[in-house]
């Protein structure tokens, strides 16, 4: 087929002095920072649902997006054509990964069998494109929220028939993800929650969700899929409350139902905002549990109360994210998937390139700053010194579990009122600004 973006060349690194909007100013894929190339640090991914499918509608108006390659039908032929567009888009941006929901890549049929057949037909196309280009699937998932059957949840639906249908859909999505060599599979509970507790048996619903995930683990083993399972936290919208509300809630759920060894978290900035947390908080909670797996790279508007899924351009945000990732030693699984959409006013195909270029440059700048802060050592040194009383003496005994309240009382009688140091928050904020 002919090119979908004939007037757009492959995007090149031209450096910070370039005025060309279709060039990278900071992101140089082969540049080595902190021991790895930028390409390997980020493992950028294109979100199929936003880049290829989002119409840019909002609650007050229909879609504005211009997609000349799309004939507007929900046909398999149109879906195959769209797959070629996505791979051309990735090639011109130099992005190695993509991710999808099953219903993003293939149309839903009149029956489950027809939906499966449609999915197989498009996966045939994707498999060929991957072999031809070397592009990879970061993770797959199933859309258990769009169809009306899921209006009261999927794995947490009060209907056993809906639960069964969702299981059949996830079974197929897992199998095609495995077939495409997907490096992971994400569970996002878009409607796994409640609108009202008057009609909800919360314990039963959460028990059902756990049973569903145990079934997924069993099927993963059966088919030999070795990719990482992820859960993506989100507190609300569209539900009043969703059971995977934030990192801590997800980790508590996984521990309670003996699932923690099978799952890591896929964390999104916009969802952290809706949960009343910063992105760094959500990442640190997951990291402390050894459960930070992948990241949806976006941001939200704090003045708007819903999931705006904007492209990340805030250098403070990307610096904080990269500080956590570098502390972790980088991705061992997952990557930075641009779960972000252009604004409704940015409706031309070229705007997709501008948006991804801006996000990739923002993360490249954040990586360089984070690496410089770590190499400088003053920030880490201050934090280490602040907790140094736990490195020896009574502090070390506390951490080793060697003392109880009696010993703490005796220590306090002997040593009197504690002397503590300043937290120096403002000094450290100024220190970070030196690099930014």
From TrEMBL:
Localization per Swiss-Prot or TrEMBL: Cytoplasm
Catalytic EC class: isomerase
UniProt-annotated catalytic positions: 101, 104
Cellular component, GO annotation: cytoplasm
Cofactor binding note: Binds 2 magnesium ions per subunit.
Residue sites binding Mg(2+) 1 per the record: 232, 268, 296, 339
Keyword Coiled coil: no
Record SUPFAM superfamilies: Xylose isomerase-like
Entry keyword set: Carbohydrate metabolism, Cytoplasm, Isomerase, Magnesium, Metal-binding, Xylose metabolism
EC number: 5.3.1.5
Keyword Metal-binding: yes
Names of required cofactors: Mg(2+)
GO BP terms in the entry: D-xylose metabolic process
Residues binding Mg(2+) 2: 268, 271, 307, 309
Catalytic activity line of the entry: alpha-D-xylose = alpha-D-xylulofuranose
Main location (coarse class): cytoplasm
Gene3D superfamilies: Divalent-metal-dependent TIM barrel enzymes
Gene Ontology MF terms in the entry: magnesium ion binding; xylose isomerase activity
Subunit structure: Homotetramer.
Family affiliation: Belongs to the xylose isomerase family.
HAMAP family named among the record's database cross-references: Xylose_isom_A
Protein name, entry field: Xylose isomerase
Source species taxonomy: Bacteria, Pseudomonadati, Verrucomicrobiota, Verrucomicrobiia, Verrucomicrobiales
């Amino acid at each position: 087929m002919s090119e979908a973006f004939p007037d757009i060349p492959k995007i090149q690194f031209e450096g910070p002095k370039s005025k060309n909007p279709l060039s990278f100013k900071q992101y140089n894929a082969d540049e080595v920072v902190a021991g790895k190339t930028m390409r390997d640090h980020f493992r950028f991914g294109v979100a199929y649902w936003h880049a290829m499918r989002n119409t840019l509608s909002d609650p007050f108006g229909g879609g504005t997006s211009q997609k000349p390659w799309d004939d507007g039908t929900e046909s398999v032929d149109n879906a195959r054509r769209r797959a070629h567009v996505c791979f051309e888009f990735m090639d011109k941006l130099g992005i190695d990964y993509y991710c999808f929901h099953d219903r993003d890549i293939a149309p839903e049929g009149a029956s489950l069998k027809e939906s499966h057949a449609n999915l197989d037909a498009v996966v045939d196309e994707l498999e060929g494109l991957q072999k031809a280009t070397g592009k990879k699937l970061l993770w797959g998932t199933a859309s258990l929220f769009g169809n009306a059957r899921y209006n009261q949840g999927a794995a947490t639906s009060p209907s056993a028939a809906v639960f069964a249908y969702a299981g059949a859909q996830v079974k197929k999505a897992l199998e095609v993800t495995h077939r495409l060599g997907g490096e992971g599979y994400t569970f996002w509970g878009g409607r796994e929650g409640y609108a009202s507790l008057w009609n909800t048996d919360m314990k039963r619903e959460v028990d059902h969700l756990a049973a569903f995930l145990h079934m997924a683990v069993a099927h993963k083993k059966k088919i030999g899929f070795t990719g990482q399972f992820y859960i993506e936290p989100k507190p609300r919208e569209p539900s009043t409350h969703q059971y995977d509300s934030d990192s801590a809630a997800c980790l508590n759920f996984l521990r309670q139902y003996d699932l923690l060894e099978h799952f890591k978290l896929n964390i999104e900035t916009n969802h952290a905002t809706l949960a009343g947390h910063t992105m760094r908080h959500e990442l640190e909670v997951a990291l402390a549990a050894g459960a930070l797996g992948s990241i949806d790279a976006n941001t939200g508007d704090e003045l708007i109360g819903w999931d705006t899924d904007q492209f990340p351009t805030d250098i403070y945000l990307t610096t904080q994210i990269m500080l956590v990732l570098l502390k972790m030693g980088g991705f061992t699984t997952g990557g930075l998937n641009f779960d972000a959409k252009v604004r409704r006013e940015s409706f031309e195909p070229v705007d997709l390139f501008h948006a991804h270029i801006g996000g990739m440059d923002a993360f490249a700048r954040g990586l360089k700053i984070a690496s410089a802060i770590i190499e400088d050592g003053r920030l880490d040194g201050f934090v280490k010194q602040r907790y140094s009383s736990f490195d020896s003496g009574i502090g070390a005994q506390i951490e080793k579990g060697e003392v109880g309240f009696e010993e703490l009382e005796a220590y306090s009688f002997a040593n009197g009122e504690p002397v503590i140091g300043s937290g120096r928050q403002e000094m450290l904020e100024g220190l970070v600004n030196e690099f930014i």
